[in-house]
Amino acid sequence: MKKCFAELIGTFILVLGGCGTAVFAGGSVGFLGVSLAFGLTIVAAAYGIGGISGAHLNPAVSVGAFVAGRLSAKDLGGYIVSQVIGGILAAALIAFIVKSYGGELGTFAANGYGADFFGGAAGYQDLSLAGAFAIEAVLTFIFLIVILGVTSKGAPGSLAGLAIGLTLALIHLISIPLTNTSVNPARSISQAIFSDNTLALPQLWVFIVAPIVGATLAAFAWKWLSSSEK
Questions:
Q1: What's the predicted TM-score (pTM) here?
Q2: Where are the domains of the chain?
């Protein structure tokens, strides 16, 4: 229960810090600022609760850890449920704050793809379904490879949180203009629920399935790579 509660808190921090920045200050800080916000929240959560639960904060990371033999089947379900709940609670708080100052939720930092989703907003690309699936799967693959690598035996553990946070910031720099960057089903679910964008929920499946596919492939790749070194 303590591990699950830590995951709930950590995912709450991630969504509040990353998506909150996008919603409240995205127009001021731009893509770079939002990318750094997501990276910094991972660093904060990793050092805050990493010693308790590992600070997955992401169902795709938990699935990858399970496939790689780093997480038990008993913990997997509890982690995922806790992460989704933490994300939804943070999104609810963001929505409440937006309404409290009379703002409109709009897209609400939800994930999506294509011109119809972004409505011609400056800086966004008209990405296809295949392109969105591919970039989300590949970037999650990279994210998991880094996570599994920096948390493996022999890696400098004190720097793991920083390396993971910087990787997430890089991932956002690459893909915010394409999909608003998911690589995290809990983050995507939480924002889609409150978004006023009518395509947020219909397109949500991409941001659940693609990250899990990418994480699973990364886990198999890491198991092969690490076994070849023995």
A1: 0.95
A2: 2-225
